[in-house]
Design goal:
- This is Luciferase-like monooxygenase.
- To bacterial alkanal monooxygenase alpha and beta chains.
- This protein has an eight-stranded parallel β-barrel with strand order 1-2-3-4-5-6-7-9, surrounded by seven helices.
- The protein has one domain: Luciferase-like domain (TIM Barrel), CATH 3.20.20.
- It is 42% helix and 15% strand.
- With 335 residues, the chain is of the alpha/beta class.
- The longest helix is centred in the N-terminal third of the chain and has 17 residues.
- It is globular.
Length: 335
């Protein structure tokens, strides 16, 4: 049976982007404003991602920002996309998210990633002697599940708050390794196709083929994150998306900067090599007006059969960003 855009949940990934000329304080105000509008427009969840030592990303203290967003909204689910578990002890994350769930019951998601969310030098500063913690990621996920379980009440180490709370755990991925883990544990799977699309189709196929039902989930559930820039016209959207292109040029060249204003053309800004490299990372990027996006996103859904779409939008002007998410909500609602 064909899935329609109008039949699946749609959500927001906020990378808490710091805009040129602004500060992280401005970013957090804009994030809350976006979350409040997203709730009003029918978005299902609002996730924030853990990154470190990146001047354009302000969500390094992810749990704190999640609390800020949840406190300023009423019903939208709020969570991590994701917490990089090897950077933390499972007990501390159980306590943090147990606290969040206690404050905002029934609204908190815990997405877990294996990567450091930063460069190796910064990862060393975060992890110290635990630099190889990524190798124990599967075991640490199981520890986290144990801390949340009611059965852990007889253990000598307990997560208070956290114990006995129903906090959905997601496995995040940008490769096939995470797909196998999510399948083996019977957990929902969120793929970072917004910057690492190369193994996307292979990974979700592995996940679906190897999925083992669990107490948490009876059938495989795939969420895909994509880049979307919506506007009144295709031409306007194609201009707005140049801020994203400039951001990814910085990733390719290693010269990161704050999110820059859009430009009329990228000609003369990036080289052919930089354009090609950025283009590979941005293969799951959709720009245009309502009609264009309705067509292109439905094609993506036809190809992937994902269960939920999560959207991130690097747009320089906050009002244009709000309008982009509003237009997109109308696409999903078939308005």
């Amino acid at each position: 049976m064909k899935k329609l855009l109008t039949s699946i949940p749609f959500s927001v990934l906020d990378l808490a982007t710091v805009i040129a000329g602004k500060t992280p304080a401005d970013t957090f105000k804009n994030s809350l404003n976006l979350a409040q509008h997203a709730e009003e427009w029918g978005y299902n969840r609002y996730w924030l991602a853990e990154h470190h030592n990146m001047i354009s990303v302000a969500s390094s203290a992810t749990s704190v920002v999640i609390g800020h967003i949840a406190a300023g909204t009423k019903s939208i689910r709020v969570g991590s996309g994701g917490i990089m578990l090897p950077n933390h002890s499972p007990l501390v994350i159980a306590e943090q998210f147990g606290t969040l769930e206690s404050l905002f019951p029934g609204r908190i998601d815990l997405g877990l990633g294996r990567a450091p969310g930063t460069d190796q030098l910064t990862a060393m500063a975060i992890r110290g002697e635990r630099m190889n913690a990524a190798n124990s990621f599967p075991q640490d996920v199981l520890k986290l599940q144990a801390y949340f379980s009611a059965e852990n009440s007889t253990s000598s180490v307990r997560a208070i708050p956290g114990e006995g709370l129903d906090i959905p755990i997601w496995i995040l991925g940008s490769s096939t390794d995470s797909a196998r883990l999510a399948a083996a544990l019977g957990l929902p799977y969120a793929f970072a196709s917004h910057f690492a699309p190369a193994q996307f189709l292979t990974a979700i196929n592995i996940y679906r083929q190897n999925f083992k039902p669990s107490d948490h989930l009876k059938e495989p559930y795939v969420l895909a994150c994509v880049n979307v820039v919506a506007a009144e016209t295709d031409a306007e959207a194609n201009k707005l998306v140049t801020s994203l292109y400039q951001l990814f040029r910085g990733i390719v060249t290693g010269k990161r900067s704050l999110l820059q204003p859009p430009v009329e053309t990228m000609d003369g800004i990036w080289t052919e090599y930089e354009e090609e490299q950025a283009g590979q990372m941005l293969a799951c990027t959709f720009t245009g007006n309502k009609e264009t996006l309705s067509h292109d996103l439905q094609q993506f859904l036809d190809q992937t059969q994902v269960d939920e779409l999560m959207v991130t939008s690097h747009i320089f002007d906050h009002q244009a960003r709000l309008r982009s998410y509003q237009i997109l909500s109308e696409v999903f609602k078939g308005i």
